[in-house]
């Protein structure tokens, strides 16, 4: 299903794909361009063009529409992809409804920090993005308003991640509705507008690019975190790398080409298509991700993909968008040192056993270690884990003298592994 | 067999013995430490194989507190059969709810050991049978044949063998490679037939070098409750052998518990078992005269001592009586004595002062109190007791204030005194005398001075030496008159006594003399003779005294008229020990020996009947510590 259809499926009343058009793809609120044009650039899936606001006076105006701006709204959501090519001279208006008395807007502030604001006679709510928009990097922005008869909160998302740095911190309007506002404008507002209730001159951003913006009203506007993250962001994000579908081994080979790669500040690190091998596992060899990479993996198949980080690989975030399941595991090392409790000498030949206990990702009873200590009194193994794994573990030496009482291991095995010393009491 | 073959560890954590049974070739026995080591050896295996489901993936099966204390943990457990193949310590399981403790028995090899637990003999004495088999040849034979055996010649001499088919026993007197000889007793056939099972009494895990006759485990706690406080008694009661017991009265401890028992030939128990088991003379003359609190004047001082029994040995010797009592309390006999199973009878363990009686007790009966049970062997009054004597059966002895319940009730009044037991319960025998156990009583006249009895006051009494003097061969058809007196130079000792006061009354019943009455004076002269008293007329009248009193120097005589033919103050008097016309060919009297006494004996018959008159026969003879006798002659004086 095309990305636009995924958005529509969530119940939006209006969607402007900006795929070389300003027409409403769902309703009839077609835009009127003033200085804007289209650039052949991919901001999200299924788009090859983006609306460009290339000068401070450029704007795209959406006509008065009841379910967008022209009536009081108790629930409202607006989202879409946005990108700039440089740090802007602030403040710039990305998207806005209203003027100096009411507003529902996305503002680009100092250093390209995004300000999400809803301003009313009775309240002013502002949410600030945790990070700054990087040049030439697409972001998915989303702002959701729920009046006090519903969720009584304002939520903002960047790449599907809720932003919580707000003023006031509770983000609660404590009012039932958002009063009617002046029409939507992408880019430079035609009239006087305000930020925080104070009139501020806002302009359009330079080389601001837009794709797949949509508005929601009423119940459809109450988007969940998952819908924002997985439907609106993950399905639209453009992957830096794609592992094409094929056999498990072929896909592994393809992945191996990225060994030791560092995935930078991108919306999505890897898109992984379905395998012809059914459930499959891909082992990443020291593929690491920048902390600003919004989503590490997107699995598009309908089987189960197990992604195993090895040798320092650190993929964490993963979303399955094709009906399947994706599990991210770390291959961690378990090192158990067995010592004599009395004199701390190493015990050679002690058997160490570890199995999965309840509360972890592995099935209870899954054997993790069953080996004997080496000449240094050490037993080691590796295990692939997606989360901290509680364990039942023990060490024994009962076959030859000196004999020892069974010792218990505490665990758990975390995503960085386990290194534990156990001291056995000689019988 | 190896322990791995003899045991299996099942999925449900049941550890079970699957090896050969007791007595069978290959039966396996292992110390608890070996058992633990085996479990631990398996427990560090990577994965199990075969029927022992134990490896590193399994929870820990056992924990060793000490080499002799092994805990089965995490649900692992053994059953009774498995426990019977372990020794050398304790097995604890189910978090301490079940405990088997180790017993190490110090005794001579071949001892037949019985365990008394919770007031009963443990029926399955598996610990006694290290060798078992089946006779495969015999038919009514006096010896066992097992053609599959390969014994060393006479290796079993001195051991006992049990015919498990007819339940007879025999002391083994010889054996070859395939045969065993011994006189069977106590069974239904007392012989060997093909198909008869046998068990040789040889303790499991015996260790002669260390002095152990048996080593095994006994369950002392089950389902969270100690079995009679983990108290038990080890005892051996075998015909021909010494009886012995060892009580663990405070309860077994974890690890090994020692039972030290004496098991040796009893030189005073040599009679064939059958003579007692199917009693013939003289054993069939032995009887229990009185059961329960009973007075016996053992020392013949006219004051009774009290015992919990009074036995008559009939015509049996005192040692035969001893053997009779051993037989009655043998390990495998079903005899009941005093209402208590003979194989449980041990004698009085506690003397208890009581008060607040209510109801009526039986002379002997079962009693109980909170925390224990016992068998009452004596009570000094069935309705108003102040003391009772019991054998403790289970639990601990009652304490001050506790109520003891039988058919009546009473309370403990302060004092409870433990008493020392003997084995066998009646006491010991020297072969010619017994040394009685506390409270065990025998008729006075069945005792000799060498015997000793201990009464319920815990005082030892030695019976007097009753000696008998007999005169034979007398005629009863032409009845001889026989006179036996103290000798005085070959004549009657006429002035053996002198009267202290004249006898002049019309109904005199007391005669006081000036001299001390000898201690060997028979207590009564009735039917034998009496006191001869010199009368004024010069004759010595005969008075069959019925009693005498030393301190007052007084004889008690049947009422006699001395108003005529008085006896003067200072008149002579003497004893006629025998002073009568013979009614038996041998006339006797009994006295208590106090020193040799020379007696003067005179026999006369001057009548005309029968063989006609005879000459007077006179002689002297000594009454010594073993008695004495004289044989008279009858010479015609026709």
The end-to-end distance of chain A, rounded to whole angstroms, is 67 Å
- How far do the termini of chain B sit from each other? 98 Å
Sheet/helix structural class of chain B: mainly beta
Helix content of chain A: under 10%
Mean pLDDT of chain A: 96
What is the correct CATH architecture of the largest domain in chain A? Sandwich
User: Quick one: how many beta strands of chain A?
Assistant: 33
What is the compact description of this entry?
The complex is a heterodimer of chains A (427) and B (638). Chain A is 6% helix and 43% strand. With 427 residues, chain A is mostly beta strands.
Could you give the topology of this structure?
The complex is a heterodimer of chains A (427) and B (638).
Chain A: H1 3-9, E1 14-16, E2 32-34, E3 37-39, E4 50-53, E5 59-61, E6 75-83, E7 92-98, E8 103-108, E9 113-119, E10 124-132, E11 139-146, E12 153-158, E13 161-163, E14 165-167, E15 185-187, E16 193-195, E17 198-200, E18 208-217, H2 225-234, E19 239-243, H3 248-256, E20 262-263, E21 268-272, E22 280-285, E23 288-289, E24 295-299, E25 304-310, E26 318-320, E27 325-340, E28 351-356, E29 367-372, E30 378-385, E31 391-397, E32 404-409, E33 418-424
Chain B: H1 3-6, E1 7-9, E2 14-17, E3 30-31, H2 32-43, E4 62-66, E5 69-72, E6 77-78, H3 80-83, E7 86-87, E8 90-93, E9 98-106, E10 114-117, E11 120-121, E12 131-134, E13 143-145, E14 160-163, E15 168-175, E16 179-182, E17 197-200, E18 212-222, E19 225-226, E20 232-236, E21 244-248, E22 256-260, H4 273-277, E23 287-296, E24 305-312, H5 318-328, E25 336-337, E26 340-341, E27 350-358, E28 365-369, E29 372-379, E30 387-395, E31 403-405, E32 409-418, E33 427-429, E34 434-438, E35 452-454, E36 460-461, E37 466-472, E38 481-486, E39 497-498, E40 508-512, E41 530-534, E42 540-543, E43 547-549, E44 554-560, E45 572-581, E46 587-592, E47 597-604, E48 617-623, E49 628-631
Parallel strand pairs in B: 2-6, 3-7, 5-8, 9-22, 34-35, 37-49
Antiparallel strand pairs in B: 1-2, 4-5, 8-9, 9-18, 10-11, 10-20, 12-17, 13-16, 14-15, 14-17, 15-16, 18-19, 20-21, 23-24, 25-26, 27-30, 27-32, 28-29, 29-30, 31-32, 33-34, 35-36, 37-46, 38-45, 38-47, 39-45, 40-44, 41-42, 41-45, 43-44, 47-48
